Amino acid sequence: MLTTQRRAMISTRLARDGQIVAKALADELGLSEDTIRRDLREMAAEGLLKRVHGGALPLTPPLPDFAARQTIASDLKCRLGRRAADLVKPGQTVFLDGGTTNAELARALPRDLRSTIVTHSPTIAAELEKHDAEVILIGGRLYKHSMVATGAAAVAAIEQIRVDIFFLGVTAIHPAHGLSTGDYEEAAIKRAIARQSAETYVLATPEKFGAASPHRIMSVSELAGLVVPADMAAEPLSPYGDGSTALIMA
To answer: Where is the HTH deoR-type domain (predicted)?
Structure first.
């Protein structure tokens, strides 16, 4: 098989599966693992994929900083936030992950809603200053890119709380690679919160579908629901239409 043919196959597999395992692909093609690894190194050097131990992942565009992200697709995020706020009932304990879309959710919550809101994001907590809800702020090492607390202290506090709903923030959603994000410690925090939650939802903007970030959080099938734009194209949503995860239109 020619180098160009192998590279085309690698690109196709990445788009379909969300990952390449070098040994598995080498065995399938009857080639040496070194050959596949060399292809992956060269493609990574050209900016076509991201090399990871044992294989490769698709590239995801680098996220702008938190302040810049607040200005991106703000109307769409407002819609998602308002729809997600409808899922919150009086008396519930709700965990809000960080992120600009979840900030819109916090703004959309009725100010007289009697509930408990837990968050490890100081920016989310600040949005709830004038709300009647009790607010519990989890502390730890501040990951400034997402403005959330991470580390052992945050995990220890999270493990003492049981919540009804967790609104999880992610950077990528893929049918094979699942829900993922760009930071190792942040992914660990998100998994810890999900373990303490009866239901987990993701507010999903269209550009996150079909992408895979380096650090996996959980599978899409573990979610109670995806809150998505009502006018979103059907094709990116088709892998999630089996009913295991609710698609909630906003």
So the answer is: 3-58
